[in-house]
Design brief:
Blueprint: E1 9-13, H1 32-41, E2 46-48, H2 57-65, E3 70-73, E4 75-78, H3 85-101, E5 106-111, H4 133-151, E6 156-160, H5 170-179, E7 185-190, H6 191-197, H7 201-208, E8 212-217, E9 219-220, H8 222-230, H9 235-241, E10 244-245, H10 255-263, E11 268-272, H11 283-298
Parallel strand pairs: 1-2, 1-11, 2-3, 4-5, 5-6, 6-7, 7-8, 8-11
Antiparallel strand pairs: 9-10
GO biological process, one term: inositol catabolic process
Domain Xylose isomerase-like TIM barrel: 39-294
Keywords: Cobalt, Lyase, Manganese
């Protein structure tokens, strides 16, 4: 196993392990300060933005820099398939400018038109949205435009394939990648969402290495995944049941994934993003577990 290049690859962790944005009752007791202090304590240098983070960029920057942390990315919800383009554009520009002020280079966007990821009663597999031909065109054209807006500020738009949305399977990722301009639209590669969907994460990283500009590291518990399918669970219930966990604690072998990223010269952030119920999975304990695993498997 080659060690990945510390000068090229930075490690971050997402606040979703401390407080869940989709289900704020999970981790409601964990404060912003505790969250970022524990991230730093576990040995991470980057973070994404959670719902408890101060809205004022200067306040946020100060709190993070005290702990040697910085913002690397923040989730953006696009509604290109269901709402007028301008609504998404206006929201995107605001989001882009905030991230720019915070010094982040990456914007992770996911299409939320028809998404069922936040709906508690719809089974994540059976209820998955399928875009029409017209919706695919609106999505691709819209993303190309957002990608140009990102580039205007020297930033990069990455697309986050996600369970319960219209871009979930490899076939759908292929379609999106082929319909969008590689100069403007990149891929946010998420190991957990690929495995949850039934895809091979090694195949995907090999196929799209040149377009991957941000990486989410999350693992999947095989027994919970089987239960999700068996019981037709929703995405939120699957998360609550513990379908996701940190690298090294589930069914994914990350060594070949790290190797492909290293061999193809990946440069950017790898972010541990494993949403669980913090009452069941202590966030600091799991952050340390992930950090140790990445040190062993990626040499970082």
């Amino acid at each position: 196993m080659n060690d990945m290049d510390k000068n090229k690859v930075k490690l971050g962790i997402a606040p979703i392990a401390w407080t869940n944005d989709d289900m704020p009752e999970l981790g409601a007791e964990n404060t912003f300060e505790q969250c970022i202090s524990e991230m730093a304590l576990a040995g991470f240098e980057g973070t994404e933005i959670g719902n408890k983070y101060p809205k004022d960029p200067q306040v946020l920057k100060k709190a993070l820099s005290l702990r040697g942390l910085r913002v690397c990315n923040a989730w953006f919800s696009a509604y290109l398939t269901t709402k007028p383009l301008q609504e998404t554009v206006d929201a995107f520009v605001k989001h882009r400018d905030l991230l720019y002020e915070l010094g982040a280079k990456i914007i992770g966007a996911a299409e939320q038109g028809h998404s069922i990821q936040g709906l508690k009663d719809i089974p994540v597999f059976a209820g998955k949205p399928i875009f029409t031909k017209e919706e695919w065109k609106r999505l691709a054209d819209g993303l190309n435009y957002l990608g140009k807006l990102a580039q205007n500020k020297g930033m990069v738009l990455t697309y986050h394939h996600h369970m319960g949305t219209g871009v979930q399977t490899l076939e759908e990722i292929d379609r999106l990648m082929s319909m969008t301009d590689p100069d403007f639209v990149y891929l946010l590669y998420d190991t957990g969402h690929l495995v949850f969907s039934g895809e091979d994460p090694v195949e995907v990283v090999k196929k799209y290495a040149a377009r991957i500009k941000h990486v989410h590291l999350k693992d999947v518990r095989k027994d919970v995944l089987e239960k999700v399918k068996r019981e037709d669970m929703s995405f939120l219930d699957a998360v609550r049941a513990g379908v996701f966990t940190v690298p090294g604690d589930g069914m994914i072998d990350f060594a070949p994934i790290f190797k492909v990223l290293d061999d193809t010269g990946y440069e950017g952030w790898m972010v541990v993003e494993a949403e669980q119920d913090p009452a069941k999975a202590n966030p600091l304990e799991y952050a340390l577990k992930a950090r140790e695993y990445i040190k062993v498997k990626a040499g970082l």
